[in-house]
Write a structure and sequence with these properties.
- The chain has 409 residues and is of the alpha+beta class.
- Among the domains are: 125-149 and 256-409, no CATH class; 151-253, Pdz3 Domain (Roll), CATH 2.30.42.
- The chain has helices spanning 2-39, 91-105, 119-148, 165-169, 188-196, 257-283, 295-310, 316-342, 350-363, 369-397, 400-408; strands at 44-59, 65-79, 150-153, 157-160, 176-180, 183-184, 203-209, 212-218, 221-227, 231-237, 240-242, 250-253.
- The strands form five sheets. A four-stranded antiparallel sheet has the order 6-5-7-8. The protein has a two-stranded antiparallel ribbon with strand order 1-2. A two-stranded antiparallel sheet has the order 3-12.
- Strand 9 and strand 10 (231-237) form a beta hairpin.
- Helix 3 (119-148) packs antiparallel against helix 8 and helix 7 runs antiparallel to helix 8.
- It is elongated and about 85 Å long.
- The two termini are 29 Å apart.
């Protein structure tokens, strides 16, 4: 009985928040495609949330079938006349489709179909999905910052671990970090982010110690940590903790909706900058990619932030509010990630379609069918490889292989 209750608890804690967050993000993404396509008069057959067997569906007065699939891990908009998975037919495919549409519906009927819209309209329809993800993130961050305001914790050194790069560099409790590599910093999170993305690279810190101004150099080293939310990860550290030591080290300012929107847009920019920097370091061989996560890792993180919010102090109402704000932030970050991934120039993704349209705009003809087919296969292989790598990371973080090894011993 206890095992069943534990399983139910794990399901409610991890799977339910994950599905709710993912469903919201995917729905908004597909609505971006749908609304812009509808604005340009494109005929649409289906709007589906989820894949597989239909659990629910209805057809509206425009002939669009709205459906919910049994597997809630994605969604799609199906335009009338789609010929293949890449949604970019070549000249022969377009000619065949146009002839069929004219034969069935009369001359001019093809103008209502996606593939015969001007390139700029098709590009906007495709880009609308990722754009909707960024807009959703901006809205969620705006709500979040409107409620919690702007909270800034100064980068004050509260603890230095002996034998670490920070200790060897000469950091002391009470030091205030003012810059890194000449760039001013005002928040503790800025220092943490820079250290995490600088493994084995010396960093020069500007430090204020009382009336003194010092320059200290420390080189972040990768360590293995057991993170409560992410699991076991290799991450760069220098061995010091940052925390306010007095009221002067913490500031709070309420934000009006316009200020909150600006803060939210800035948060999106910071997240994208961090993501591109991290990916660039992976390709340059300076990061291992341990921090990349797939669906398992995202589900684990959803459960972790949910549990963390529920374990906070306060009554049920306060915990519920804390949970709602935490999930808002989590959903905003995942939405940015999904928007970014979809813009990658991989043929099966929105970014790949935009690359095809760019070629069509320059060459004045669609990409040849054989090139599309090859690109589609390569894109699937790249996505499958990325998913396998991310899933491997997720399993490693949860120590599953060590657990299985223990069972075998």
């Amino acid at each position: 009985m206890n095992a069943i209750l534990d399983l139910l608890g794990a399901f409610l804690l991890h799977i339910v928040p994950f599905v709710l967050v993912l469903s919201l993000i995917v729905t908004i993404h597909e609505l971006g495609h749908f609304l812009v396509a509808r604005a340009f008069g494109v005929k649409i057959d289906q709007f589906s949330l989820g894949f597989g067997k239909r659990l629910w569906g209805r057809t509206d007065r425009h002939g669009v079938e709205w459906r919910v699939g049994a597997l809630p891990l994605g969604g799609y908009v199906k335009f009338s006349g789609d010929l293949d998975a890449s949604s970019v037919p070549d000249q022969a495919g377009l000619a065949e489709l146009k002839s069929r549409l004219i034969a069935e519906h009369g001359p001019g009927a093809e103008r209502d179909y996606f593939h015969f819209k001007p390139i700029w309209q098709r590009a906007l329809i495709v880009a609308a999905g990722p754009a909707a993800n960024f807009i959703l993130a901006a809205v969620l961050f705006t709500v979040l910052f409107s409620v919690v305001g702007e909270q800034i914790a100064a980068p004050r050194v509260a603890q230095v671990t002996p034998g670490t790069p920070a200790a060897e560099a000469g950091f002391r409790r009470g030091d205030l970090i003012t810059s890194i590599n000449g760039r001013p910093v005002v928040e503790a999170s800025e220092v943490t982010q820079k250290v995490v993305l600088s493994a084995n690279e010396p960093l020069t810190f500007g430090v204020r110690r009382g009336e003194q101004t010092l320059t200290l150099t420390a080189t972040p080293q990768r360590v293995i940590e057991q993170d409560r939310i992410a699991g076991r990860v290799r991450i760069s550290r220098i061995g010091m903790g940052l925390a306010p030591l007095s009221a002067a080290d913490f500031s709070y300012r309420p934000l009006n909706p316009l200020e909150a929107l600006g803060r939210g847009v800035a948060a999106i920019g910071d997240t994208l900058e961090t993501t591109t920097t991290y990916l660039g370091r992976i390709f340059a061989g300076r990061e291992s990619g341990d921090l990349l996560s797939g669906p398992l890792g995202i589900a684990k993180a959803a459960g972790g932030v949910t549990q963390q919010a529920l374990e906070g102090d306060g009554d049920v109402g306060l915990k519920s509010a804390n949970l709602a704000l935490t999930l808002l932030q989590f959903a905003a970050l995942v939405s940015i990630g999904i928007g970014f991934v979809n813009l990658l120039p991989i043929p099966v993704l929105d970014g790949g379609h935009l690359v095809f349209y760019a070629y069509e705009a320059v060459a004045r003809r669609p990409v040849p069918a054989r090139v599309q087919e090859a690109g589609f296969r390569v894109g699937l292989a790249l996505l499958a490889g990325l998913m396998l790598f991310a899933t491997w990371n997720d399993l490693q973080k949860q120590n599953l292989f060590a657990f299985l090894g223990g069972l075998a011993s």
